[in-house]
Amino acid sequence: MSQDLFEELHELLIPKISKCTTNWRTPISTRERLVICLRYLATGDSHQTIAFSFRVGRLTVGGIVKEVCTEIWNTLQPEYMPSPTEETWKQSEKGYRETWNFPNCVGSVDGKHVSIKCPKNSGSEYFCYKKFFSVVLLAIVDPCYKFTVIDVGSYGRHSDSGIFENSIFYRQYIHGKSLLPDKPLPGTEEPVPHVLIGDEGFALKTYLMRPFPRALATQDERKTNFNKRLCRTCRVVENTFGILAQKWRIFLRPIDCDVDTAIDIIKAACCLHNYLRTKQGTAILTPESEDENVPMRALITHRPTNRRSTTAAFETREQFVSYFNQ
Fold first, then answer.
1. 103-112, 161-170, 281-290, range with greatest mean pLDDT
2. N or C: which end of the chain has fewer CB within 10 A?
3. CB proximity list for 300: less than 8 A, separation 6 or greater
């Protein structure tokens, strides 16, 4: 974050995080409060380390982080992560078609486990299959590595499909509706639904494409080609999570806060990610410049699901298979 962007962010937050000066004490300045929060998100240091660095109390740091993260979300979300509109989906589809060669795709979706300290009296609710405690960050990403929609706070033991189908986004935009009207793929005449794309953690739906199982793909070159095209495009959401974790290194270690504060931290980091991507105009990695062998260790993906799908979903995927093998 450059100094100019910091000053701009500070100006936006001054009315929300300022405190009154009283006869008893002079409050911590708004600039220092914002710096403490950003330092915590960017380094992942403990509250005690931050307290030593700024000569304030450990509990003071905890209160500042929670308050400032909440106000960052309230201030930046309406502008940098607004509720998607039809125009949002159209711009996303254009980007995926022109940059990633996947027409009729309006977003890449994935869920990641964010490691947290074991919550009190939570039993096994937050205990995920990777043997640590986590909350789930489920995100839909546009072709420019910016978050379009996020869902934060689901139990770590839940699957991607279950979280997605119980999210507010699903009820508002998917259930009984369509993201955009059907349209033919380039060079064809038969209308095809607009879709999201995901990995094996999601069930195949008419609105969500997933790759073929590896055992089937190895026996059919057409399915292999489809898997290559889809998995290459799925790298958009993987890259976005990687950029998020490298800029905000709080994700490289378990978040030592209560669950509500951890959710506020994740939401604030996602908003700051969109804010910086929008302001800095960072270049997009093209498919040709991708390094397929770089693992992303900060955020852990979900395990695959084997839920059965409808005939309509299989037919929609077969239309994409035919298009990619023309």
1. 103-112
2. C
3. 112, 113, 115, 128, 130, 134
The mean per-residue pLDDT over the stretch 204-230 comes to 88
Give one word for 105, left, alpha or beta, with left for phi > 0 and alpha for psi -120 to 50: beta
CA distances from 220 to 204, 224, 228, 238, 304 (A): 19, 6, 13, 26, 21
- Helices H, strands E: what count in the chain? 11, 8
Helix, coil or strand: residue 228: helix
d(CA 113, CA 132): 9
Q: How far is the C-alpha of 153 from the C-alpha of 137, rounded, in Å?
A: 7
CA count, 13 A, side-chain hemisphere, 89: 18
Question: What predicted TM-score, i.e. pTM, was given to this entire model?
Answer: 0.88
Task: Please say whether the beta carbons of 139 and 109 come within 8 A.
Answer: yes
Binned at pLDDT 50, 70 and 90, residue 56 comes out as: very high
**For residue 298, what is the DSSP state?**
S
